[in-house]
Amino acid sequence: MEESVAIATTRGEFPLCSKTEYPEGKIPVSGYYEKPKEEQYYDWDALIEKIQKYGIRNVLTTTVAPTGTLSMLADCSNGMEPNFALVFEKRVTVGRFFYTNKIFEQVLKENNLYSEELLAKVADNYGSVKGIPEIPDWIQNIFVTAMDIHWSDHLLAQAVWQDWISNAIAKTINMPNDVSVDDVKASYLLAHEMGLKGITVYRDGSRHKQVLHMTSEDSEKRFEVKPSDYLTSYISNNIKNEYIKSQIHNALSAIKLEDSHKITQTVIEQEDEETLCPVCKNKLIFAEGCNICIDCGYSGCTSG
Fold first, then answer.
1. pLDDT score at 296
2. Rounded to 5 degrees, what are φ and ψ at 72?
3. pTM for this one?
4. Distance CA 227, CA 196 (A)
């Protein structure tokens, strides 16, 4: 915002700036209003004075973009997302092999744990190491994936960032196959109450074609995900609308996990252009709200 004000001094403020709340000394940064002054380490008041004096060149100045392709090049997580999965299964004409997070693979090898059998277990467990007895707890606590975190805690993490981001944040709330319509409804209600400016919900298996083999046909889900105690306390103390609070509480309390812990995925053998990369013709996966190719780096969210 400081740089946008500096540009405004030479190039002028954005059109219609005078009709916004900027001249009144208001800024689209909720943390400035919600956090105690003693917890703020930036002189927002001085910035507001500059905006009132010179205007600001951009309507909004900060965001967290969907950096899917860049994260693949760096082999790291996307934006503010956890890793979607530590191991993906890929099926080709000569058989099956696994695309594995390089850091995770290195740790397994350093601790003499690496094997194709173990990778298969991780791939068949939503790409997560949670609940796999061969993997020590300290590794399970470090390598946390999107599916290890309850959708409500995804929103809570996003809300922490949103306090200081003026525009929306690219964030996918990855839900397992067994969530209900009430879960999805509650996620949007909670996101609105938290002041989020946008979310994307993806339920595994909800697309017409399942392009990502996260699990095999009779895979075993070895872990149960629950909301954190902090999240439950947050809802009780911060959401004032009783109807919305009850809707969210009802969704959070309805833990749905089959007795056998079995999740059956329908594997579609027939493929069409929708499931294949338009560049290299390998299979696309759906992660962080985009169809992406782990072979050439193509992203369906990249324009131009």
1. 76
2. -65, -40
3. 0.77
4. 19
